[in-house]
Queue: 3 jobs
Job 1
Amino acid sequence: MFNKVVEDSLNEAKAARAELSKHPAIFVGEKGKNDGGLYLSNYANCLLNRQIDIFDDSILLLENDRVASACTISRGMIETYSFAKLLADKISKILTNSEGPESVEKALDVLMGFTNSSRYKQTEQKKLDKGIIKLGDIYRTEQAKYRMENMLASSEHVMNALRALYKEEMQHTKEKESQFEITYDALSEWVHPSQTSIFHNYVPETHLIPTSMGKLHFHDGAKAGCVRALHFITDSINIYNWTIALANEMTKRGRKDS
């Protein structure tokens, strides 16, 4: 029964994936000067492409019984899906609550925070500020130097996106605990060195686990977690289409102004 539920869920996810295709992404630059929506549609393409890659690579690993690696990669599906969803939600609220060119500028400001999100660069800025490193230590473009000197690097922490996802789920289910969070945390045990990823994974005597449904193999439970994460792809196209509609609205408002 357990494996049948997992298999059905995986088949749903595979069917959704079959309907998706990657979209080309570009360096917008001057092309977006009079088309703010192009920045958003381009980033939406990148987000969808990443979800497709995560799905395909995870399936490849699962089908070759590389469960530990599949768990490590499939966790990224929850992160990327929630990241895309949070971005669309923030842009939507801006466009709903403000009008004209001002709304486009506000939306672009939020979008740039997501696009340029880099904890690494943010950490480098702090090192520069403390005198630990100097701008001339490694080669940087003039734009990169300017951003470093003016502390412009940002980091949209993925936990913000995950918390928003968990909160929305619990509002819908009326439960006190998020099943999405449970799945994410379980997969995180595989991502990091832990009892799960090291001891249990490599000690066969620990693999049969007593449950209310009888004995469950350790790796079957892990595969189920992967599938729950990969199942988010069934909604990826909805988030993508929503984001593209928001991008079109940004473009329209910008053209009215010009």
Job 2
Amino acid sequence: MANRKQINEYFTNDTIHTYYALDKSMMKAHTADRNDDAEATARSLLENADLPLLLRARACMILGCGESPDFIDMAKESMRVAELGLGAGELGKNLVEDCNKVLEEAQVAADEKAKEEKGDDEDEEEEEGMELVWRAGEHEDDEKNGQAEGDGKGQAKSSKESMQ
């Protein structure tokens, strides 16, 4: 079995070591289901222009696993960054595989969310499809005289019922 380098061995200065410590904290928070902490750390890391691509991809992956409105975009960005700069080495291949998995899961979640929203919209459309065909007091004189029976006045029905 080959002796694998730790991620922090790739980093060479104090700023990069600080980024690595934040990355490590972010990953621990994510693993411990403290996703708010993990996402906050990821967003903080992404504010740095000199953030190494490896850490940028991992921060995007964390946000791609989240529930924020931009989760699908962040999952796509993680894939783009991983493919962009990490080459064909073992680390790059593993990262691309992980980013791809996050992207696939994010896409499934986005599709489910869209389906739920569409279902909510259909419920609203069904409610909007109700049509008022009688208003209280509008034909009181007709009803008192018995003229409302059989002519459809005095009945409330949905537009669906009226189409049948």
Job 3
Amino acid sequence: MKPSLPSLATLLLTAALTGASAQTAPTTPAAPAQTAPAAPAKPVPAASYVALGDMYFNQGKYDMAYVAYRAAAQLEAQNPRALLGLGRSQTKLRLYGPAIETLRRLISVDATSISGYIALSQAYQQQYVQTSDLASVARNLELAQNVLTQAQTVAQSQTGTDRDLNLSKIWNERGYVYRLQGQITQAIEAFKQANTLNPDNSVVLYNLGDMYYVSGDLPQALNYLQQAVIADPADPYNRAYYGKLLALSGNVTAARPEAAQAAKLAPTNAYAVGQYGVVSYLAKDPVQARTQLNAALRLDPLRYPEFYYYLGRLNLDANDLKAARDALTRAAALGSTNPEYLYYLGLSFERSNTVSPSDRVKARENYERALKLSPNYKLAQDGLNRVK
């Protein structure tokens, strides 16, 4: 009987792990043979390990994908698919140094691998984002752009439909790097280039909408987010973000069904569920807002400081200062570069009730931190003037 995919996967992964451990296990004298030797087992081809790695990677099981891709790379050291999968899984596991080494090796093996260049650029970016010692990765974003320049040279020499598609991917990745470099105008232009080459790609449309929102151009942000929703109606991220921007524009009537639909499409997606909570807060529905924000934070308690911020705002509105301070402290810790989180944290300490007295020292500290990030932040300056 043909084994099922899970059992086959288990056998392959066990073989990979066994093979790895066998390389370091001490040898022992073999016992005298009592029976005729069995026929040697047929070796598992590298392609099978790559397929297994692809399956685990797509399921988000990056540790198991790493083992499978590593086994493939050990069998065939110059297998481009094995090296690409290994490098990507190493990045997901935050093994940035090994990932960069693996992906450099891939490019030396296959200098035409657009996916390899992009993955290497992503490894540089993630190492920059996740490292607290920025001095040690000061050149990472420059290196990420240099890798994309190499990729662009390769893509421009291509012909056929792959050329425009690959150039679109490269420009989209450039946009991410420009954003990390704080170059908002260049990021928008990069995403525009990607959009011109691939006009119906919802990811690129989302990125354009996001960058216009960051730049303060809400109408253009709404325009591109709406196009992203049309391009991929089932994507919860596009719809949830579009719903929030509609609410921020004042159109809560249109925002609420968009946000509700996003949460319905992906009830276990923290982003979609949380943005439904944000929209509910902006629509002055505190019960629904609290339900959705708490649900989102149970799904993912560390990724979205925005949801702690809005939960803090809810508690502040209800004069529950203890809960407000707790939520806003978490928001400010996870989103330490956002002056608005710090301002409202300061406000929560400035206020008082019968349970939570005012703490003007902490209020002043947080107003000052907000002003350090945004010197022209009038609300923070007014708050600081009150508690001096």
